[in-house]
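Regression test attached.
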Amino acid sequence: MNELHLLLAGFGGQGLLFAGKVIAYCGLIEGRQLSWLPSYGPEMRGGTANCGVCVSDEPIGSPLVLAPKQLIAMNKPSLAKFIDTVPSGGLVLIDSTMIDDKISRPDVSTFYVPSTGLAEEQGLKGLANIILTGKLYAEYKFCKPETITAAIKKCVPAKRSEMVEANIKAFEIGKNYK
Amino acid sequence: MAVTFSKPHALTDDIFHYCPGCTHGIIHRLVAEVIDELGIEGKTIGIAPVGCAVLAYNYFACDMIEAAHGRAPAVATGVKRSLPDSVCFTYQGDGDLAAIGMAETVHAATRGENITVIFVNNAIYGMTGGQMAPTSLPGQVTQTTPYGRDVKLAGNPIRVCELLSSLDGVALAERVSVDNVKNVNNAKKAIKKAFQNQIDGKGYSIVEILSSCPTNWGLTPNEALQWLRDNMMPYYPLGVYKDISREVTAQ
Amino acid sequence: MAEKVLMKGNEALAEAAISAGCRHFFGYPITPQTELAAYMAKTMPKVGGVYLQAESEVAAINMVLGAASTGKRVMTSSSSPGISLKSEGISYMAGSDLPALIVNVQRGGPGLGGIQPGQADYAQATRGVGHGDARILVFSPATVQEMVDLVTTAFELGDKYRIPAMILADGMLGQMMEPVILPEKQDPASLPKKDWAAAGHEGKRKKNIINSLYLDPYLLEKTIVERQSRYKAIKAAHQMSEEVYTEDADIIVVAYGASARVSRSAVVQARAEGIKAGLLRPVTVWPYPDDAVKKLADSAKAFLAVEMSAGQMVDDVRLAVNGKRPVKFFGRTGGVIPTPNEVLEQIRALAKEVQ
């Protein structure tokens, strides 16, 4: 299975930490090594938020994701801040509802997904994060197909269990988005 | 032979280190008598302060903890939250309670910590040799106010019972004195009430006891008691400032 | 085997403390230990415990002192500036022989410093924190699992030797999530009784006094000497460390906590380049794993201390190496976390020097 050195970045409230947690849980369920590290402090309060996720078959040394091999960017400032940190050959997923820029890095694979728009159209407001997670899975298999549902179930709080279906639907939309 | 007078069980045989004429001895005895009368020595934990009563842990026969300067209310909070059925009292002087420990005092009071506070106010730092206390009177000469306490320079004294009586967590705030027999008897009643309140789960009870310091005031024991009556009592009127068990009219 | 769960270091530590029978938490808000206190506030009422937000760190640590005096398992947590305030109470607890757990989720300093992860409180922690001739146990976890496992160890050794114990973590470990296995829950009632506690004598024993005051210097000296003998026993029996690739290593990187994780990545990379590097990771920083360092000083050619400070633990490495081998230092400070590449460059340079 592919190893992740992933950074999810955007505004606070876009569910980046949650999406990171779902992805981390996929690693946990499959018995792999992983880490999940959020940014913290005043920047969380209304500003940019980001979260690094490492999944590997070897022990994770530094959990800091300074040169993300995979980047999910959900707002302009985050894309601007992190695009140059992605090493050559990296994978970049962009929420094109939130970001109308195109990036000029021919050495990375870039996918534009209007995930915030798709989420609203499908009555899945707030699940653009999981749509992008689905797209990440489609382009880069970081877990077995059956793992994702189990991970979503682990991450959705019990008192909001009705959200499990919505998350699975959002994941599928992202996975199938061309 | 009939025994007409004896040392309370809640006092040990240790000999007090207090100066001649100091009223700490009387107050210790009153606290110990109350502990005996309520039959609570076995479940009482006392908190000694830093100040003249720093060695109180040797004098009371119950389990004792020596706190850092001013922190007795916080230590008592830890004790009571761990052992809600115990009886916990702090024994603090004016510098300990109303200067360095004011934050701990106010917050323990406002939380309504179910503790008993014995507050000995003698308007001076005794143990360190007679410096200005937060309760030293305007004009009072101390080692650190050699020209008399100038309130413009050194600020005003704090009336602790008045201050704490505004807080909802306080069950009892009463100021007493031990300068004569009648007042000693009143002081004992107040102390007993402050312990009984705790047993009844009523919350924070403080008894402020005006006390003399002949040594640092530079007076004989009798003169010191007269000075207390003439100077401290007008500034710190005796009385009940708050008692949730009855209406208290403003002084 | 218990199920692995994904938890933040701060929350996992809190859960571990409750599992270890701790039912009393006194604290004051500060970043980046926030989640620990929040977890306690949420959980303590459900398990019959006490969470109390004090008016200050000073009050919180003295509440800990009071609760510890009654013989309970009790803890507080804070971050660097808050630990300075708690240092008063920690000294009194050390002087009163009171066990309790103090967690420092370190950030950059001095002063208000910053809120990003730091390791600049090493000297403060390992030299006893407060004033006077005292030490406390100091554990430095490097994984969320260790944030959990060391809690029980800290409580148990603290009780055994009647000494305060600190978990010296940092903002990175506190905030990050990793898979973790939580320990079995201990019933607080099943914990060993403490016959020294001030919990009310019930007329059945002599009174107990919890105290750090001895006006007679000879008596005070006697208590300190007795305490030092316990420290000696701790040093002999409880040095903890982990070694990675040290058997044939020329270069020993010494790092604890978050910087050990970074250093581990660098060591693995150095090995891939054919450099014989190894990692010694202190798990206890007081007592310092002197024995492990001394042993490696026989075989290795040089040491490199890596820290998130301007150089504090490196002194302990030097003391243990005792001039036998060169000891270099690399650190980032102020909340900056070194990168594996930065450490790798240091290893490469040192490897050239000692060739």
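Expected vs. actual: identical. The CA atoms of residues 158 and 334 of chain C lie 31 Å apart.
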